[in-house]
Design goal:
Layout: H1 3-6, H2 14-28, H3 40-47, H4 51-63, E1 67-70, E2 74-77, H5 94-118, H6 121-139, H7 145-158, H8 162-186, H9 191-209, H10 213-234
Antiparallel strand pairs: 1-2
Helix pairs in contact: 2-4, 3-4, 5-7, 5-8, 5-9, 5-10, 6-7, 6-9, 7-8, 9-10
Length: 238
């Protein structure tokens, strides 16, 4: 192993230390947004580790929205770690919630259609892992809010379109968490409600898996429409 490269990036597993080294390189300006990273083979040789070890570090960089990867084209830097994100538009009324869900539907339908068209096997694996984590959280009686955001981000990343990833990460997800916070405090999801939501998510995963952009867009449209309905039901006074 090339200890000189990994010695100064702290402790942790090899993938964690490679991740930290790449992040440092991006922050130093060695790799700016839109610049390509070295290939897996080059990074493995540089650090003296196996390609699966490098792959694990790159997967974490993708998960954090720092890079995007395409088969045959390598990995490209999307944004610098810690770079400022867009400030979410404030929600001040029920009308704003209506507008937000209309906006969200447009964005996520496009992301789902793109995911169905451009997804790769690694994207499907990440999507299924996010889906399983969300199901586990919901069945345990937890809100599953964080897991749900990761599920929708996995869809966006499967589109291999950084604009979808950035918009969902910086605009859709923060507003959604704000809207759903009050509901999650008091709302105890029934088993029927959990199963209904799981079926909506499963329809999205299935459409992306079979490469059906139209079905994927429609499945996520129905899911977001139902999510809005559930929000408004929770705001009704007894």
């Amino acid at each position: 192993m090339n200890e000189s490269l990994l010695h100064n990036v702290g402790v942790g597993s090899l993938p964690d230390r490679i991740y930290a080294h790449v992040v440092e390189s991006i922050l130093r300006g060695d790799f700016a947004p839109s610049n390509k990273l070295p290939t897996e083979g080059a990074l493995a040789s540089q650090f003296g580790v196996s390609r699966p070890t490098v792959r694990e570090a790159l997967a974490r960089l993708r998960s954090d929205g720092i890079i995007d990867s395409k088969r045959g084209a390598g990995s490209t830097v999307i944004r610098a770690p810690g770079s400022p994100v867009v400030v979410a538009t404030p929600i001040k009324s029920l009308a704003d919630i209506e507008r937000y869900y209309a906006f969200r539907s447009c964005i996520e339908m496009g992301a789902a259609a793109g995911a169905a068209e451009f997804r790769e096997e690694a994207d499907l694996e990440a999507l299924r892992q996010a889906f399983d984590a969300l199901n586990t959280a919901m069945e345990a009686g937890h809100s599953g809010a964080d897991e749900d955001v990761r599920f929708h981000l996995a869809i966006a990343r499967a589109s291999h379109n950084p604009f979808f990833v950035t918009t969902i990460d910086t605009s859709v997800a923060p507003i959604r968490q704000f809207i759903e916070l009050a509901r999650n405090i008091t709302d105890k999801k029934s088993l029927e409600r959990v199963r209904t939501t799981q079926a909506e998510h499963q329809a999205i995963v299935d459409a992306i898996t079979r490469r059906s952009p139209g079905d994927a867009a429609e499945a996520i449209r129905i899911h977001i429409l139902n999510a809005k309905r559930r929000i408004f039901e929770s705001t009704q006074l007894p």
